[in-house]
Amino acid sequence: MDAILPEPKTLQEAIVYFSNPDRCFAYAVKLRWPDGNVVCPRCATAKHSFIKTRRIWFCYTCKKQFTVKVKTIMEDSPITLDKWMVAFWMLANCKNGISSYELASTIKVTQTTAWFMLQRIREVMKGKKFGKSKIGGEGNELEADETFIGGIAKNMHKRRRLQADGLGPFKNKTIVHGILDRNLRKIRAKVVPNVSRETLQDEILSNVKFGSTIYTDNAVAYGDGLQRRFVHDFVNKTEAYVRGRVHTNGMENFWSLLKRSLKGTYVAVEPFHLSRYVDEQVFRYNHRKEGDRKLTNADRLAVLMSQVLGHRLTYSDLTGKSDSPHHETTGTGAEVPF
Fold first, then answer.
1. Could you tell me if residue 71 is left (phi over 0), alpha (psi between -120 and 50 degrees) or otherwise beta?
2. Which of 85, 109, 194, 274 has the least C-beta neighbours within 10 A?
């Protein structure tokens, strides 16, 4: 085995680091079983032997073989681990995201395969919000806001423009609602069906502890209902964007990051898939820091890899089609075994 290299800090370093099969495998094993105790993902026992030449284990309890990919988002994928690790690194650390064309060029797979890989990784990114319990609390300040994602009617194909005609300025757009905890400096965001009072207030009630201080704009949806459960104040953006501590600039900053990635990197995203791209941006935003410590690229990769267990996304679930993307091949068309 070659000399020990430090964990990668840049894309070039990541490509070199993971190009060594032994080092890549050891890195993945360390992230999956950090205590060094490898257990069978099927029966959870540690009675097994390791077949070094094939990098697989044989479990004596359930009599089955397993790899480091089993029961993860990578299970049944013929794409080799070195390519997966580079893809995880890129999506975790490229602040504006990574297109399937760029990933395909970087790791030498087809664009369709790269797209499917990225969608699987986004599935992992949504797997761990910053806690499932409600956020905020008495004395804590939060911001709530919504944004509209979608094309301008005049730029649409004639057929789509006619469908949207007369439906109002936002009916052809997808709505994303978000809540920022200023204390934690973390965000929760999701696609919502509309901007009705019931929808937006339900989002706040489901995620925020009673007694929290909530700042919003002056949208009608954030009406009297919030004041009965929270300390609620709002800013009228037609008059001013900031009134002391009352503003939603933190959420506006997140919307700017989200739209920059959607317009600049991905160009066009179908509404059906938008929630995955929102989860992607939320992951990167929430893992900029941990407390006062700035997270490194290696830190973000480790967090993302710690979430791969228990996720499953098939091509048919993703697209509604039964066929996988060219059998998930490499750029040469040759399928690669584990």
1. left
2. 194
| pTM beyond 0.70, yes or no | yes
| 78 Cβ contact partners less than 8 Å away, ≥ 6 residues apart | 327, 328, 329, 335, 336, 337, 338
- One-letter amino acid for residue 162 of the chain: L
pLDDT above 70 (res 171): no
Domain 141-269 in this protein, CATH class:
alpha beta
Tokens of 284: 């990167």
Determine the Cα–Cα distance for residues 5 and 260; give it in Å rounded to an integer.
34
Average pLDDT of span 169-188: 90
In which residue are the tokens 């993307």 written?
325
Give the pLDDT score at 333: 38
d(CA 330, CA 214): 49
- Residue 177 bridge partners (DSSP): 146, 190
